[in-house]
Design goal:
With 138 residues, the protein is α+β, with helices and mostly antiparallel strands. It contains 4 helices and 5 strands. The protein is globular and about 40 Å long.
């Protein structure tokens, strides 16, 4: 059974690292280099950072994270997607995790949810089917 849960990433380090390596191999080369999650920094963020797992029974098959905070220019709470990856055979379930992230952002009082995707990627195409593009950042 496919489920999404809000999880503490510290408890899933091994599984997240394995998925992260696959994510890195599957994605275009990152300008930031290899995946290097700072779990202590995420823990220090408290409720500002929320991490979600996509599970097939007990197996972690995808993950996503959001930051929720006051906008740095305006007096409004916003959420920003930080990361999102699901194994290719589970892409049909990607919106389960997207919707869980959005629901959590709304519960935290966010008025806006910012998504980012590399141009012309599968995620960019999926987002464009559901959302309006607001701006392009170079």
């Amino acid at each position: 059974m496919i489920t999404v849960k809000c999880i503490n990433p510290q408890f899933y380090k091994g599984s997240i690292q394995q998925l992260g390596e696959y994510h890195q191999d599957f994605s275009a080369e990152s300008v930031f280099g290899r995946l290097d999650i700072d779990y202590d920094m995420l823990a220090a963020c408290g409720d500002m950072f929320q991490f979600f797992g996509l599970f097939d029974d007990d197996a972690l098959v995808g993950y996503g994270g959001i930051f929720v905070s006051r906008h740095h220019h305006y007096n409004v709470i916003v959420a920003r997607h930080d990361t999102l990856f699901v194994l290719p055979q589970y892409t049909r379930h990607i919106f389960k995790i997207v919707e869980a992230m959005q629901d959590a952002a709304k519960e935290a009082g966010a008025k806006f949810m910012f998504w980012s995707a590399k141009s012309e990627t599968a995620f960019d195409k999926l987002l464009s089917k559901r959302y309006n593009q607001e701006e392009i950042v170079y």
